Target: Glycosyltransferase RgtA/B/C/D-like domain-containing protein
Amino acid sequence: MVIYARYTFNADDIWVWLEILAKHPIINGYRPYDGRFFPLASVDLNILMQFFTSAYAYFFFNAIEVFCIAIILWKLLEAIFETYQITSRYKWIYIAILLGLLLHPGFVTVMLGICYPERLQVLFLLVFVYATFKFYLTNRVLYMVVGFITANLSLYLKEPTFLFIGLVGFVNLVILVKNKSFNRSFVYYALLTLSAMIYLALYMWLIYPHIIQAYNDTKNIFIEQAIYIFKGIANFALLDCFIMILLPVLGAYRLYRIWHKKEKFHSLFDTLVFGSILYILAFIKLRLFDQYYLIPVYAMSLSSVLYYVLALKYIQNTFFKLITFVCSLVFIICTLPIGIYSFMWIKTEGVRFDQTLSFLAHEAKKNPTITLYFDGNGRSKAYNTWYWSHMARYLTEVYGVSNFDIKVKDSDYQNIPTIQQNLDSPLTIYNSKNIDEPQEGDFIILNNSTHHYADSQYLETMAQKYDLVYKSQVFGMPYVSIKSLIKYIFGDSLQQKLVVGNQNIFKLPTSDYVYRVKKN
Model:
């Protein structure tokens, strides 16, 4: 995690690094205008930036977080296995779960970035579940205090967490009141319930009245929203099959056992199951489907799934055995390859970006002015505009270079908005809507942000048309997944429907290229 540490493109990381370098406080979790309230999100960054600006320091902190998560997860697994005397032949599950989590695309994305509140949320939720389980067994004050503290830290790292904490606390509180058990457990679950209520009250007071447009809210017609939600759920199911398929089935089966078979409701594990499902439903309702959003659910639900599937031997049920097999197969075929690719891409993309910036800055310092074009990129919001826009900022703010211009040679997509025009900007890409023809000496930058299918044949064409002056030497690999293979097999018709004009389904090329327009 620490090696190859660079400022890189990983969601909001790219602008967060600039704030760190400038030592500007990062306030990313308090945005009343779009309904966001997770104020503890950047506390660690604001503390670290007082002492460090090097990327190595931040990824060293992330590595410590991953190590702590692995230790707590291992301790939780040991506690579950030992308490319920799960046969030792299942001990291989320890390693499988650890590796599965570490290589999950969402976990990789979160832990190889700095902007994600899930980094700390997963750790605190794991500690909360472990402490709550140990409190359930021992009734010790230490576990009650640790559980209460980590629950409250988790609450202010992602909004839907209050649903999970609130359900665990409230349902247990109702059970205790019904049984007239006003003991230490009553205090603990009352505090959890109160904590969730306080969060909700703060949200309704500080955020809700000031919402202008909810985060990710769109004005699309119903059919477009339905298709978007269906695709989002399908993506979740492919990447998170265990918690999108096995967990809901387990929840439904538990309801059947409780209501139809009159089986006793398990105050701990049933609330963890239903609280986790409620957390998932919140993201579906909010139409948020990025690959890292459900990572906290693994911390929430893992102990309960293991308890029911292994300790209560649900795995002996043919139906559960089949679902577990299918989920394992999907995870191996679909999830793991994307996780491995995500790890390689995130770690190497930053190095390529840094090296390309260094080359361009060197060229700018040798010349009165240089003009940059980004092949397969442009002003339309369908393009990967984040690449050229942040390269411009890094050249100016980090490398101290301002004698450059960025122009566009690729036409915009029809019926898709373009970036906001800024007539005061010195860059043509912002202050004009013109499509320009590269002139002698101009630079053409090609990397995997292009919308063109930049295979070997495309690279040959570029080499014939322009002079290759720079190629990154960092290892890269194409994006190969079930979805990309389907798009490739079914050709342009399906590809154009699924990705607006973006033909680069394998995210090629695997290196960064800089070309110079030849002399006439």
In short: Residues 13-316 form one domain. Confidence is low (pLDDT under 50) at residues 493-499. The radius of gyration is 25 Å.
